[in-house]
User: What shape does this take?
Amino acid sequence: MKYIFGPVASRRFGMSLGVDLSPDKKRCNFDCIYCELDPAKPVTEYEIPPKPEEILKEINKAVEKFDFEVLTITSNGEPTLYPFLDELVNELKGHKLLILSNSSTIHNKKIQKTLCKFDIVKLSLDAVTPKIFKKIDRPHKSIDIEKIINGMIEFRRIYDKELIIEILVVKGINDKEEEFEKLNEVLAQIKPDRVDISTIDRPPAYNVEGVSVERLFELSKKIENQHIFIPTREKLNFKIENLTKEELLTTLKKRPFTDSDIQNIFDEHTSRLFNDLMKENLIEEVWVGGIKFYKAIM
Ligand code: SF4
Assistant: This one.
């Protein structure tokens, strides 16, 4: 199959069947410094797009063959550049739909309308300072971060399903506290359901490095009142230790934790306290985009 990949088990979204709208080459209006695809000059248009019927035919075959929970629309590049995205999505009713976008077109009203048809929209926002945004995402010269931010705020007003923002951290570029303070201000305006903070975990096109998971946790402290997900399989070198009941409740109010956060960073005492608070019904479970968070009820 040309356009289908998977299904793959995704920790964030469950079993996902992928649809790649640009399988033959990279078609992107960014050339991110951390991209896993070969470097390519950013483009703003999808040349010679396949007809939606061609892609649909493959999706329909795959749907009969595989079990999956979510149909993920993605691309070797930016899926919203595909000019028939709206037509394609109209034919996919009945499936749980997720799109992974770099956000570059989110200010466009037509794209906003199309994205409203998805159950989960995941948008990238690696930096808000124009200089840092250009350095990390290397966008086409017509793309402006202010427009993207305003587009995200506008989109949130009309989109009431799950909106996830992903920040990918690259060492020496967007890994400073000041950038995360600015991201925090912008995220407070966007009001996403979840913020994923990740780093490079496969060799990228350019010679850049990720940061440690500990650093991701440090930076995440600057992001307040959001459901933050830091995907990690590593054992962490730091612990949250000896909190009092009140301190734990305040922490979980400001920053709901996931199962993996709790297993990885709570010491024995704090884990016991957490279990007691669960029994006392002072902590509730909240599911966001397939991830369970624990939040204090206060
Ligand atoms: S947006 Fe995605 S495909 Fe495009 S350059 Fe960045 S990482 Fe690569």
